[in-house]
């Protein structure tokens, strides 16, 4: 009989252990999943680790690759971009657990059903064993032990569930006074731009995946050119854009004059990120000629993004939002959601109109989109103000070194001769130069540069 009891106990704890072990945010990957895994750059030896974020343990992150292979990587071994990416993943997992901000002790998602399965099963089993022992008139201490273990399992269940109650990171239940945004409302704003973009969501975030290339032309009209050009970006998989479904008012809104000069502050409904109106030197990008006719340009990673409000999207979007800030609030165009003229805006560049939910507006004057973050956001601890950035957000990965600005060059033309090719024309004085480039489906880029003297150079990346 003792062997039977030992077997039952071993079985119970084996099931419990394996259930806990498997309760992490990613699955197990095969070779066919390789293209969807993240490439982590190690600054210590210029090597890469390929795998998706699994969990955090103190100053380590655990990465899972194909066929169950795992690596433990110290945060300070990652380059700055991947440190920010890791922090974004940590924040997403913590918010799914009901926390805001970085929680260094959170290793896997809470799961009510998992606790019920484990501790409920243990309680029933121990209770059954205690009845069996009583009927067989076994040792009294053994019967009491089974009964006590049954009660203990029930207590563990309730304690575990109580710890899973969502809170704001300070031990208090979240009470925001703001209704949770429905995923259908946000999705309706992005729908006109599908299938070029795709969307999905869970109970915490609305996710947007895109190539970072808009449905309008680009670059024409830039008079202060940094010699960067738009290339497709992989804003997909775990590197998608994340919009919180439950906005929370910030105690003190963070101003875009002194914050967020790195990374995006919003995502437009066509899948293009919107950056601070100020560049990383604190200059108004629009006023100094860095932006094209649509309010965008390319950063050092050849990633196209807006710095001014993409008001042209209202032609397609109508009265729906043209963007969503990364604090969860919508951004409308020149009119209110009901079609009336835009009312006076506050210092955050938004307001509550007609007893509706708070929202921002895009305008043709500074700050164009967001003057200060009305909602609470989490910032990347590796990037101090003013070059701090909001997490989570997607990241661009450059394929070539950044070039230097070409003084007095004006971009006069930008065309797409084929599906995977662009030709850019610029003018310098009374002469013209060209940048012709194309790429293969496996990500090899060929550039042809023809300067204003007619000299041609080529490069592959």
Can you walk me through this structure?
By secondary structure, the chain is α+β, with helices and mostly antiparallel strands. It has three domains: 111-163; 176-405, no CATH class; 410-460. 21% of the residues lie in helices and 24% in strands. The protein is built from six helices and 25 strands. The chain has helices at 2-21, 80-96, 112-135, 140-163, 183-190, 314-317; strands at 39-41, 48-50, 52-57, 60-64, 70-74, 198-201, 205-209, 241-244, 249-255, 264-268, 273-275, 296-298, 304-306, 323-325, 330-332, 350-351, 359-361, 372-375, 378-379, 390-391, 410-418, 421-428, 431-439, 445-450, 456-460. A six-stranded mixed β-sheet has the order 11-10-14-15-17-16, with no helix packed on it. Strands 21-22-23-24-25 form a five-stranded antiparallel β-sheet, with no helix packed on it. Helix 1 (2-21) packs antiparallel against helix 3 and helix 3 packs antiparallel against helix 4 (140-163). Mean pLDDT is 83; it is low at 17-26, 100-111 and 163-176.
């Amino acid at each position: 009989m003792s062997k039977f009891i030992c077997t039952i106990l071993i079985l119970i704890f084996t099931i419990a252990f394996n259930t806990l072990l498997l309760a992490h945010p990613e699955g197990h990957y095969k070779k066919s999943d390789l293209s969807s895994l993240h490439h982590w750059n190690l600054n210590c030896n210029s090597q890469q680790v390929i795998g998706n974020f699994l969990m955090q343990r103190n100053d380590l992150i655990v990465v899972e690759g194909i066929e169950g292979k795992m690596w433990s990587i110290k945060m300070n071994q990652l380059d700055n971009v991947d440190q920010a990416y890791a922090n974004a993943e940590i924040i997403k997992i913590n918010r799914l657990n009901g926390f805001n901000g970085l929680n260094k002790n959170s290793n896997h998602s809470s799961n009510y059903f998992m606790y019920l399965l484990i501790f409920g099963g243990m309680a029933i089993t121990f209770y059954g064993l205690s009845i069996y022992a009583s009927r067989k008139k076994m040792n009294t201490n053994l019967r009491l032990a089974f009964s006590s273990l049954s009660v203990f399992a029930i207590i563990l269940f309730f304690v575990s569930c109580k710890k899973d109650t969502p809170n704001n990171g300070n031990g208090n239940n979240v009470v925001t006074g703001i209704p949770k945004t429905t995923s259908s409302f946000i999705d309706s704003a992005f729908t006109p731009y599908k299938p070029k973009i795709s969307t999905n969501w869970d109970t915490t975030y609305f996710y947007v995946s895109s190539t970072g290339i808009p449905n309008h032309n680009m670059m024409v009209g830039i008079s202060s050119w940094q010699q960067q050009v738009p290339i497709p970006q992989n804003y997909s998989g775990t590197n998608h854009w994340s919009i919180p479904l439950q906005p929370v008012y910030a105690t003190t809104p963070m101003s875009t004059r002194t914050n967020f000069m790195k990374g995006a502050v919003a995502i437009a409904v066509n899948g293009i990120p919107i950056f601070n109106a100020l560049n990383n030197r604190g200059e108004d990008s629009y006023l100094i000629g860095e932006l094209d006719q649509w309010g965008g340009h390319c950063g050092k990673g050849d990633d196209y993004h807006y710095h001014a409000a993409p008001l042209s999207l209202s032609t397609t979007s109508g009265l729906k939002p043209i963007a969503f800030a990364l604090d969860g609030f919508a951004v409308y165009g020149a009119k209110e959601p009901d079609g009336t003229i835009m009312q006076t805006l506050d210092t955050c560049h938004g307001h509550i109109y007609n007893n509706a939910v708070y929202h921002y507006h895009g305008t043709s004057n500074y700050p164009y989109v967001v003057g200060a973050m009305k909602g609470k956001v989490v910032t990347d601890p590796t990037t101090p103000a003013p070059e701090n950035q909001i997490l989570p957000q997607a990241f661009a990965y450059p394929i070539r070194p950044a070039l230097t600005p070409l003084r007095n060059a004006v971009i006069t033309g930008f065309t797409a001769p084929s599906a995977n090719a662009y030709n850019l024309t610029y003018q310098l004085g009374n002469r013209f130069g060209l940048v012709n480039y194309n790429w293969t489906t496996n990500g090899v880029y060929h550039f042809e540069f023809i300067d204003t003297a007619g000299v041609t150079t080529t490069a592959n990346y």
